[in-house]
Amino acid sequence: MTSQTTPRIAFQGALGAYSHEACLQAAPDMEPVPCQSFEGVIRAVREGRADLAMLPVENTTYGRVADIHRLLPESGLHIIGEAFVRVRIALMARPGAALSDIKHVRAHLVLLPQARSFLQKHSITSEPAADSAGAAAELAASGNLSDGVLASEVAAEIHGLDVLARDIEDLDHNTTRFLLMAQEIDLTRRAERMLTTFVFEVRNIPAALYKAMGGFATNGVNMTKLESYMVGGSFTATQFYADIEGHPEDPAVKRALDELGYFTNMLEILGVYPAHPDRGDPSGM
Questions:
Q1: Keyword Lyase, does the record have it (predicted)?
Q2: Is 84 helix (H, G, I), strand (E, B) or coil?
Q3: Is residue 281 part of a domain?
Q4: Catalytic site residue 176?
Q5: 276 pLDDT band (50/70/90 cuts)?
Q6: H-helix or E-strand containing 117?
Q7: Are residues 82 and 95 in the same domain?
Q8: DSSP character at residue 16
Q9: Annotated catalytic residue within 38, 178, 216, 240
Q10: Which of 109, 144, 207, 262 is buried most, with the most CB atoms less than 10 Å from its CB?
């Protein structure tokens, strides 16, 4: 824990970023600590400058966040929760500007295509920015009434900008999943529906992955995610990142993990945590 009176939570980006919005939703009583990189977020917790980290792992439109699965096992941090943020895009401008005044907008590269229809309808040109929230801060410091920024409404509130249009994204389901991480692992059963995340490396034997996955199928354990990534620059050393439903102490999960152990060189649990309500019911009920 940090020596700060108010607990702190670190995130990547500037104040007003979607990661900041995730912090406000999941930990509204904590002081947000913006960092320039994912590595910086991890260091802030490891060095005691923050108590928790908020890291994005995947997006419903763009898939997994680059590099994050490589960083998580090496971070020394553990997952204690998850959060989901719907990517709602707002067009913001300096006070006094009207929508008809806006000729040009800036935003992070991944946001611009998501609002293509709106921009074309209003004949607004665009250019990418390194950070949407940072672009909002720069716009607030300028005197330009014909420029706008696409970002979260949180950015407009922080930087004193007016929101001229809301929910302008083309897709209404674009959601980012975040992981809430701490230095200490929490293995307590804190909810009826728990998730377990782990990484493993299969042994170099025929059909090792097939055999390793068999234990989850035969024991009725739902695996919600399985992704592979190379380690150490080798095409043969492949690690897998997995999310399953259940707690390691559940009999079925315990049997499946025990069976997995027979076919792996390495197995490490990254976290045991409650499933967020926005995850939905896998049964479809």
A1: yes
A2: strand
A3: no
A4: yes
A5: very high
A6: helix 116-121
A7: no
A8: T
A9: 178
A10: 144
Is 236 an active-site residue? no
Note every long-range contact of 212-216, with CB atoms under 8 Å and residues 24 or more positions apart, other chains counting: 212/259, 212/260, 212/262, 212/263, 212/264, 214/259, 215/255, 215/256, 215/257, 215/258, 215/259, 215/260, 216/244, 216/256, 216/260
Residues 129 and 137: beta-carbon distance below 8 Å? no
Selecting among 11, 38, 118, 176, the annotated active-site residue is: 176
The whole-angstrom separation of Cα 158 and Cα 152 is 10
Instruction: Output the pTM of the full model.
Output: 0.89
C-alpha closest to that of 89 among 64, 69, 115: 115
Counting residues of the chain whose pLDDT is more than 90, the rounded percentage is 77
List of residues 6+ apart from 124 with CB closer than 8 A: 102, 103, 104, 105, 118, 148
- Rounded to an integer, the average pLDDT of 249-276 is 95
pLDDT score of 230: 73
Domain hosting 255: range is: 194-274
Query: Does residue 178 share a domain with residue 56?
Result: yes
pLDDT tens digits, 111-121: 999 999 999 99
| Number of domains forming the structure of the chain | 3
Question: Which residues have a Cβ under 8 Å from the Cβ of 133 and sit 6 or more positions away?
Answer: 13, 14, 15, 16, 17, 20, 151, 152, 154, 155, 158
Place of tokens 């929230």: 133
